[in-house]
Amino acid sequence: MMAGGYSLWLPVDVSKHGFEIDRLIYALHILMAVLFVGWGIVFAYCLVRFRQRPGHRADAVVIKAKASKYAEIGVAVFEAVLLLAFAVPVLARVKNQFPSEAESEVVRVVAEQFAWNGHYAGADGVFGRTDPKFIAPDNLIGLDPNDPHGTDDIITVNELHVPVNKPVIVRLSSKDVIHSFAVPALRVKQDVIPGMTIPIWFEAARLGEFDIQCAQLCGNNHFKMRGRIHIDTDAAFAEWKKSKAPGEAPKVSEEDFQL
User: Fold this and answer.
1) pLDDT on residue 250
2) pLDDT reported for residue 86
3) Smallest Cα–Cα separation from 159: which of 104, 75, 86, 232?
4) What are the E-state strand segments in the chain?
5) What is the pTM of this model?
6) Is 154 exposed, middle or buried (0-12, 13-18, 19+ CB in 10 A)?
């Protein structure tokens, strides 16, 4: 399956690494299907072959079942190949081999019950300093009003914009409980832990608008914690940034954050 294409029975894939994850999922499903059918046949055979019959007595001799041993060894070898040849390389590349920030778009995402707060550096390219003591209804991520680097920063709620065909580094953090940042179309999912900043990255291969979900039960209104990520051309992304008023707090209703 090519990057940015459609996957059979899976959500649309618009990331450049998604086909590797999909390939692993397909291999696992094929293995499980073979095991299900195979053991189902064995089970049906045993039901018929060893059913209770008049005059039939159980044989106490231990059977040396070589076929089942070979099958178990084959399954173990196949699982080892999946792990070492597919899963570990993909995990290492996605989790550890980050692109350089100079060549990437860097975005902060601050999770809270029940919204995703986006934070973009302004024209100076430097994120303003933040501190929880500054958090207020008109300062959702706690930007320090005394830091000049924060005066041109852009804040969004449940709306992210990223450029296509460019690595995007997202720094995840939480204001309250554990959340999970999930964008199925980008094959991205990462738990967001209070007190930690966790970076993830992806590169989109297609334009479009897709869901951001919270994949961790985070409270009574967990179901409302949804956002949208817009994958734009470079020109459209630059235009969107220009259209956002620097330092202006997004307008949100109290219902969006009701516990």
Assistant:
1) 60
2) 80
3) 232
4) 105-112, 115-120, 154-157, 159-163, 167-174, 179-183, 188-192, 198-203, 208-214, 226-232
5) 0.79
6) buried
